[in-house]
Design brief:
- The chain is an alpha+beta fold and about 475 residues long.
- It has two domains: about 160 residues, Creatinase/prolidase N-terminal domain (Creatine Amidinohydrolase, Chain A, domain 1), CATH 3.40.350.10; about 290 residues, Creatinase/methionine aminopeptidase superfamily (Creatine Amidinohydrolase), CATH 3.90.230.10.
- About 40% of the residues lie in helices and about 15% in strands.
- It contains 17 helices and 17 strands.
- The strands form six sheets. It has a five-stranded mixed sheet with strand order 6-5-4-1-7.
- A hairpin with a 4-residue loop joins strand 4 and strand 5.
- The longest helix has 24 residues.
């Protein structure tokens, strides 16, 4: 964890952004895989981590805004626990590490909240994303899980988004630690990718790299020769010559700060001419989008810039036609890039997404589009110094989407369907890096993972 002043400062800042009441931040608990004592790997709630720093199960943090007090609720381990787990620090000693002097048994949390509710005090809580905490909130506050999202505190959500969006220097250093692991993950995949290898062989080694660095994957690994399927977590295919392999994967440190990179590589070791043509368009879109990043510029405008670069490149290949700006404004490019350009990143790989994408990525000034493709852009608002975000353009040839649009005669003035048909079976290409918004522009975080055609082919030759 960070020095305790990091957590005390964060809690003090939160207090200045809220008026009154009690802030309730439950941590997470173990979740069974198939029976109670056989659990999935524990992952603490990111908001609890941000303000209270403790990476253990069964805790809750309470900030009493009216009385200016902070308490961590939890239980010390029993003798039975010690037999299975060994001696553990007391709750009081752990709380002191993050600057909290008051602790109480977890059973007292219900009593404290009941008293507050009886006095009509406001209790701020966040929308829960795990069923265990939904049931806990129902017990503590009497609010049914079906309506908890609607009852969550908008003031608390907005306050946390304001604080967590701008990364502190120590957070950026932690993210860059994860970048070293990400570099090894992706370059190892490039060296392993060859005809006859199964996807799961590469996936296993890549996840092992993340674990061996005392961390974990920041999300389930996306690794597939079917790159036109945007999120694919099955790894059953055998790599074949002439195919592309897309890997979208990130590392998470022991403190749970994340990376998110995507690389696309030719299984044969060298791109075909068609693959190279599409790859160069995606790379150009990514480089131009990154170059446009600076404080005060909306990320939505950068997304549209990348879309125009992609549409222009596809027009040069005869796949699209007509006026590029009009095509993008109307959404014709979304046949080939049906997703947003990027998202915030930090303690979560999609940072703070549990609080609601619109709260994190949009505001009163920049609203989410309802246009197919652009509607999936997670981040649209003005960039600020200290934001960490991804830039991830792509081009995909998705058979089902192609067939639907062709049957509907959609955007015939912008799309050459006969030419597109030649690329069905091509797969998909995307390239992603993680960017820090600086006072004067941007900085690409981490050791550069090969991404030019020449560099990818060279990396694949080292096998």
């Amino acid at each position: 964890m960070f020095d305790k002043t990091a957590y005390t400062t964060r809690r003090e800042k939160l207090k200045t952004l809220l008026q009154d009441g009690i802030v309730l931040l439950p941590g997470n608990v173990d979740v069974p895989m198939n029976y109670k004592s056989n659990t999935y790997r524990f992952r603490q709630d990111s908001n609890f981590l941000y303000f209270f720093g403790l990476d253990q199960q069964g805790l809750a943090g309470v900030i009493d805004l009216d009385n200016d007090s902070e308490t961590i609720f939890g239980d010390d381990v029993s003798l039975d626990d010690i037999i299975w787990m060994g001696p553990q620090p007391t709750l009081k000693s752990r709380a002191e590490q993050v600057g909290v002097t008051q602790t109480q048994p977890f059973s007292k949390l219900s009593e404290v909240l009941s008293e507050a509710r009886s006095k009509g005090r406001k209790i701020h809580f966040l929308p829960p994303y795990r069923s265990e905490n939904m049931l806990l909130l129902e017990d503590l506050l009497g609010i049914k899980p079906a309506v908890q999202k609607d009852e969550a505190s908008i003031e608390l959500i907005k306050a946390i988004v304001k604080l967590r969006s701008v990364k502190e220097p120590e957070e950026i250093l932690e993210i860059e630690k994860a970048m070293e692991v990400a570099y090894l993950m992706h370059t190892t995949a490039m060296k392993m990718a060859r005809p006859g290898v199964f996807e799961h062989e590469i996936a296993g080694v890549v996840e092992g790299i993340a674990i061996s660095a005392n961390g974990m994957l920041s999300f389930p690994l996306i690794l597939s020769v079917n790159g036109e399927t945007l999120h694919n977590h099955a790894h059953n295919n055998k790599l074949e010559a002439g195919r592309l392999l897309l890997m979208d994967g990130g590392a998470e440190t022991s403190m749970h700060y994340a990376t998110d990179h995507t690389r696309t590589m030719p299984v044969s070791g060298r791109f075909t001419d068609d693959q190279k043509d599409i790859y160069e368009i995606v790379l150009k879109a990514q480089i131009e989008a990154i170059s446009a990043i600076r404080p005060g510029k909306t990320f939505k405008s950068i997304h549209m810039l990348a879309a125009e670069v992609i549409a222009c490149g596809l027009k040069n290949l005869g796949i699209m036609k007509g006026d590029v700006k009009s095509a993008v404004e109307q959404g014709a490019h979304a046949l080939f890039m049906p997703h947003g350009l990027g998202h915030m990143m930090g303690l979560d790989v999609h940072d703070m997404e549990d609080l609601g994408e619109d709260h994190v990525g949009y505001d009163e000034e920049v609203q989410r589009s309802d246009l197919f493709g652009t509607a999936f852009l997670r981040l649209g608002r003005k960039l600020q110094q200290g934001f960490v975000l991804t830039v991830e353009p792509g081009i995909y040839f998705i058979p089902a989407l192609f067939e639907k649009w062709q049957q509907e005669g959609k955007f015939k003035e912008f799309i050459n369907y006969e030419k597109v048909k030649q690329y069905i079976g091509f797969g998909g290409i995307r390239i992603e890096d993680d960017i820090l918004v600086t006072d004067g522009g941007y900085r690409v975080l981490g050791k550069p993972i090969p991404k030019t055609v020449a560099d990818v082919e060279a990396a694949m030759g080292e096998r």
